[in-house]
Design a protein that fits this description.
There is one protein chain. This protein has two domains: about 1-30; about 30-194, Glutaredoxin (3-Layer(aba) Sandwich). Helices cover about 40% and strands about 20% of the residues. The protein has helices spanning about 1-30, 55-60, 80-90, 90-95, 110-120, 140, 180-194; strands at about 45, 50-55, 65-70, 100-105, 130-135, 155-160, 165-170. Strand 6 and strand 7 form a beta hairpin. It starts with a helix and ends with a helix.
Length: about 190
């Protein structure tokens, strides 16, 4: 009987150890932002009205252009403002490509909604555009985009995710500039339909 208990204990220890190894391997895969060919990590964030916006729900309508803004590091980023304005100005082209554009605005939870509304400036969003906040960097950490330095928030990034949830375009800026343009994102969407 003691021998059987010892054998069971050894098997349990081996199983626990192997699960731990698999878990560690999973973590190692997440040391950098997801790239082309990777499955986009699932998320659900709230828009400015408190409505949940999830990757799964948005993919039901077609591909997604996911734009991670610099957010609120203590000021409104002028390069984000410029990128946001350009993408708002090309909304019709994104609609023609049957894509949903999701802007992610990260920052500390305190007053993030207020700062996000200041950033948006009262604009009305086209039907295929979503603007969500990422309080306390939950999404940003998950996507490995946290720019963890004084007066920083997230690395500005853009992803094109096909209707199957696979990333077909990825651009992560490790500076304030070098953002994906509307033209680059639309070109990536065009390749999805070919």
């Amino acid at each position: 009987m003691l021998r059987m208990i010892l054998n069971v204990a050894i098997v349990v220890l081996l199983l626990v150890r192997s699960v731990g190894v698999v878990h560690a391997e999973d973590k190692s895969e997440l040391k950098q932002p997801p790239g082309v060919g990777a499955k986009a990590p699932a998320f659900a964030l709230n828009d400015l009205d408190g409505n949940s916006v999830s990757l799964a729900d948005q993919l039901k309508h077609g591909p997604i252009v996911l734009v991670v803004l610099h957010g609120y590091p203590g000021y409104q980023c002028p390069i984000c403002t410029k990128q946001f304005g350009e993408l708002m100005g090309t909304a019709k082209k994104f609609a023609e490509a049957k894509a949903t554009v999701v802007f992610v605005y990260p920052g500390s939870a305190a007053d993030l909604g207020k700062h996000a509304k200041e950033f948006v400036g009262g604009r009305t969003f086209p039907e295929n555009y979503r603007f969500v906040t990422d309080p306390d960097f939950t999404f940003t950490e998950m996507y490995k985009l946290r720019w963890n330095a004084p007066h920083e928030t997230a690395y500005p990034s853009s992803f094109v995710v096909d209707k199957h949830g696979v990333i077909q375009f990825a651009k992560v800026s490790h500076s304030h500039g070098d953002r994906a343009s509307g033209g680059e994102l639309l070109e990536a969407l065009t390749k999805l339909s070919n």
